[in-house]
Structure formats: structure tokens, C-alpha cells
Amino acid sequence: MELTEKKALQAFAIRIRMALVEAIHSIGSGHVGGALSIADVLAVLYGREMNVRPEDPQWPDRDYLVVSKGHAGPAVYGTLALKGYFPYEELKTLNQGGTRLPSHCDRNKTPGIDVTTGSLGQGTSQAAGLALGNRLKGRKNRVFLIVGDGELDEGQCWEAFAFAAAHKLSNLAVLIDWNKKQLDGRVDEVLPLGNIAAKMEAFGFDAVQVDGGDVEAIAAALERTRQGGDKPYAIVLDAVKGHGIAEAENTEMNHSMPINDERYARWMGELQADLAALEG
Amino acid sequence: MKIAYTGEMDQRPCKEVLGATIEKIVTEDENAIYLDADLMSCAGTLKWGKQNPDRAIDCGIAESNMAGVAAGLAVAGYRPIIHSFGPFASRRCYDQIFLSGGYGKNDITVIGTDPGVTAAMNGGTHMPFEDVALYSVLPGSTVIDVSDPTCLVSVLKQCVYRPGVKYIRVGRKQMARVYEDGTELPIGKAVTLREGTDAVVFAAGIMLHEAMQAALSLEKQGVSVAVVDCFTIKPLDTEAVLAWAKKTGAVVVAENANRHGGLYTAVLEALAEGCPVPAACVAVEDEFGEVGTQGYLQKRFGLTAAHIEAQVKAVVARKRAK
Fold it and tell me: What is the pLDDT of residues B236-293, one digit of tens each?
């Protein structure tokens, strides 16, 4: 990858973080940790890998994104706003009565949201159905599915993975946000998952594991999923919950965090500095 | 509309009609698609399904995933029909149908076979008395208790093109013939099978036959009873319910389901708001199911013509005592 592209993707990821901080600050608190941890993969998806038309969100041949960990909505909304799906200022309506940006992703409310999620596990089956439907309709597009690691506690995920493998849905790429934490604590303490990549392999996936904070590694892994074949793809993103903002990373219970004015100013300052360092 | 009720069984088992109708709908509409959870053999679709794996998707024994896959297929532009036994097509995948389906505005037609006591030999684990209540509280849903094979053909075709979540409960065995072949039964419109002046029985599913038998017996005893087919439990034909309540002043509801949250509840809501008259039900008295022949179970849970007869006499007495 060219250095300029890498820097552009890194800058996009920082801007996604700024956008989600903007959104969550407007309402005072929200799902900070798991939104920050997927900023890098969102940057690579929308900055490089996905074939979409922000001016025509319902274009049937687009690549689809299903964010099954629907509580990461603010990260997705930030990405979509930056891509021009709706005005950036609208991020400040997060969770307000009548908003188009609810806490959890809703395809009937937000331009660019493809599937309604929030009840964990349910995005997995919908993504599999969507991938199957697209293939049956002869479309050449792909479906990307972001799943949380804690979310893998839900048995429905494994039903959906077995289904995806049985139907050889190579137009489906499952991106697992392995950020090691869930709401009540460490994944290893609440319900240990073992080796996720090995499990996905055993379920019939082509599985790899990459650094979830490294846009170049994510890009390479996503590029692999273009090749078709007879297996669905899994990419385990070795990630950090709260990634990209030191205080969020260092807060043990960071699933949901308040963002008051003082914290907002500080975090935005840090992200601005990161951006300046990157873009010179 | 031609009513063909004689008390005789329709020669076609519902399973055959169900399988043939699904096959016809999916074959004729490239956007229709059928999913099952390892029960194609029970829905009469196995042979065709095996030959058409792109139109009939066997999801294995994973109803929650099947419901979610159906929602995803709807996002891709399909009109999915999914099937399992009633309890697994309702309780087992309810959150998935509710959110991925209803809340996500993904239109899905759900077929739950062997409702209530028709589950017979499969026993209590397979015997849904609560499916009607569950689907009734899903916003925008349609809930159907099929009255005979002709009704099944008509409602299934309509459901596929109707918005929202549609739930059709239907047995797989023979049912009493109610309608002339080819009769179309618009969803949401109750059908008067028999006029009467002393009381009205609103019935659905297998209870329609019991209601007709009760009405014939009561006629011989000098009691004139109307019988109305409420195959659409939701949206209830409130107009017809209130008209018959006003005309007769005494109401009995007969359903093969829990008395809470089903047709009886829907009728009582309508009566309370529009025509409060004496009412009673013949339904399952808040119990779990159990094993036995359908005949045994109908007696065990009080779902026979004799029970309807007794309840009609009781409401008529209450009306006269007022």
C-alpha cells in the first residue's frame, strides 16, 4: 500500500473517532469502547474496500455492511456522515427524540444503514440471508458483517456461521471485533471464547487474524476476500476496546462512558493532534 | 363466496395443499422464496424442495437463524415464506421475527403447523396454545387460524404480498370442508356460515366445525345460533363482530388456543368498546399441552361441540337474566 493511501486511511479513522465523540458528547454518554474499536476497520471498508454510492444509498448492487454489534451505531454514523450520506451536523441529533440516528443501527431511519440490528446475534443471520439473496439474484456485490467478540456468546451467531459455510457464501466476510471485553468485564472472565480464528476455520470459514488497529493489515485481509471460492471469509480483528483515545483504552469498564464538555475538549484536542502529526 | 359445509371432511389433507400451494407461489413468482427448518417432509415440500434448492432453502434445525436469514433475503428483495411446527415458528424464534422481521420492516410469512391440540402425538412440547397471543402483540402483524384447505390456499397467496409479519397456523391433517374449492377469502373479513338470533359463535380453525355441530344440535333444542368464521384473528373484523353481537346479544368464542391473548381477547376488546353483551369462551384454560389423540385432547381441554353448546346456553341465560 502506498504511504499516502495508508495515511489517508489512518486520517479517516481518526476523523471517524472525532465524529463519534461529537455524536456521543451531544447526548452526554454512550457506547464509547466498542465504537472506537471498529473505527479502523470502518475506515478501510468505506475508504477502500466497499463499492457504495452515498448519493444512492439503496443502489441494489452496492456492497452491504451489517453491523451486528448494533450499539456501535455512532461509529457507523460518523463514517456515513464523513462519506456524505447525511450532513455532519446531524451527528448531534444522536438519540434525540425523532432522530434518524438511534443508539442502535436502523435501516429504516438512517441513510446508508443496510440492516437493522441491536439484539445481539441477529445481524449474523440477516447478513447470511442477504449474501444468499444477492447471489441468487446474480449480483456480484459482497456483504461485510461486523460482529463483536462478546456477541459471539449468542448461539444464533454459530447457527448463522454454519449456514453461511453450508451455502458456500464466499460473498460474505465476517469481521470479528476481538476487543477482549464485553459489558460486564473481560471476555475471558465472562464466557471465554478460546481461539476464535480456529473456531471459524472449524465452522468452514477461510479465517485469518490481523491487527485490528493496522489499516494496512486490515486492507490486505479484506483484499483476500475478493477472490470468491467456496468458503465464507472470517477476519479476526485483534483490537483494543476504546482504541485511539488513551483514556478510553485505559478505562477498564469502557463499554459505555460519559463524555462531558471537559472530556470532549480534551479528547478532541488529542485527536486533532494525532491528525496534525499524521497529515503534517 | 360459496359455503360448502356439510360436516364432511375435505378429502385433501392440509399438508398436501400446503406443499402444493407453497410450490405454486414460489414457482410463479421469482421473488418468492421458501425456507424450512428440517421439516420440509412435514410441510409436503420435500420432493420439490430437493429439486429446487435455490427456491426452497433448508436451514436445518435452527429456527432463529432461519427467521434472520428470511429477513436478510427480504433486504435483498425477496418475499420469504418460512415454516416450522407452531411452537418453533413462534416461541423459538420470536425475537428474530419481532426485530429482524417486524421492527426491521422485513416482510415475512410464517407458517406454524400443528396448532394447539392438532399436535396430538407430539405432545406438550410441540403443542402451541400461545402462538396466537405472541403474534398478536407484534405490531402490524396478521394472524390467521386456517378454517379449511380452501381457506389455506387463499390466505397463503394473500399473505405473501401483504406487508408486515404474517402468521398462519394450520394443521397438516384433514379438516372439515367449509368452502367451495377456489373460494377467495379476503384477509380481515369474517365469514358468516350460519345465521341465528339467540347467540353468535365466533370460531377459528378446527373449532369452526365444532361450532357448526353445536349450532345444529342447539337448533333442534329451539336455540338459534349464528356461526361466524373468524379465520383472521388479527386484524379482527370488528364490524362483523359488533354487528352480530348487537343482533344476538350473546357471544361465545371458540378457539384452539389459550383463552388469554387470542381470538377471545380480541373479541372481548371489540365488545367492551362497542357492544358490551354477555360473552364466554371455549378455549384452553391457561394450561400447557399434553400427549394424546386429537379427539382425546379436545375433550381434555374442553374444545368440543358439547362444550360450545353448554357455553351458548350459559350466555343466553345471562342475556335473559339481564
Answer: 999 999 999 999 999 999 999 999 999 999 999 999 999 999 999 999 999 999 999 9
Is there a single domain that holds both residue B104 and residue B26? yes
A134 chain-B contacts, CB cut-off 8 A: 76
SS3 string, chain A, reads CCHHHHHHHHHHHHHHHHHHHHHHHHHCEECHHHHHCCHHHHHHHHHHHCCCCCCCCCCCCCCEEEECCHHHHHHHHHHHHHHCCCCHHHHHHCCCCCCCCCCCCCCCCCCCCCCCCCCCCHHHHHHHHHHHHHHHCCCCCCEEEEEECHHHHCHHHHHHHHHHHHCCCCCEEEEEEECCEECCEEHHHHCCCCCHHHHHHHCCCEEEEEECCCHHHHHHHHHHHHHCCCCCEEEEEECCCCCCCHHHHHCCCCCCEECCHHHHHHHHHHHHHHHHHHHC
Domain assignment present for B2: no
A133 has a chain B CB within 8 A of its CB: yes
CATH number at residue B38: 3.40.50.970
Q: Report the topology of domain A3-279.
A: Rossmann fold (3.40.50)
Query: C-alpha cell of B216?
Result: 345444529
CA torsion angle A81 A84 A87 A88 (round to 10):
40
Question: What are the φ and ψ backbone dihedral angles of B193, each rounded to 5 degrees?
Answer: -90, -25
Q: Quick check: is B321 in a domain?
A: no
Give the DSSP H or E segment for B201.
strand B199-203
ipTM: 0.96
| B215 and B290 both lie in a single domain | yes
Per-domain residue ranges for chain A? Answer: 3-279
Nearest residue in A to B33, CA atom: A133
Angle at A138 between CA A132 and CA A143, to 5 degrees: 45
CB-CB: which of A133, A156, A159 is closest to B72?
A: A133
- pLDDT 10s digits, B226-249: 999 999 999 999 999 999 999 999
Residue A200 Cα, gap to closest chain B Cα (Å):
17
Strands B191-194 and B56-58: unpaired
Give, in order, the Cα–Cα distances in Å from A90 to each of A80, A86, A118, A256, B21: 11, 7, 21, 21, 48
The interface residues of chain B toward chain A in range 37-76, judged by CB-CB distance below 8 A, are 54, 57, 59-60, 62, 64-76
- CA distance to partner chain A, nearest, from residue B168 (Å): 22
List, for residues B166-221, the tens digit of each pLDDT value.
Answer: 999 999 999 999 999 999 999 999 999 999 999 999 999 999 999 999 999 999 99
Is B35 in a helix, a strand, or coil? strand
Domain extent for B142? 14-170
Same domain, B92 and B209: no
Contact A30, A24 (CB under 8 A): yes
CA–CA dist A107, A127 (Å, integer): 13
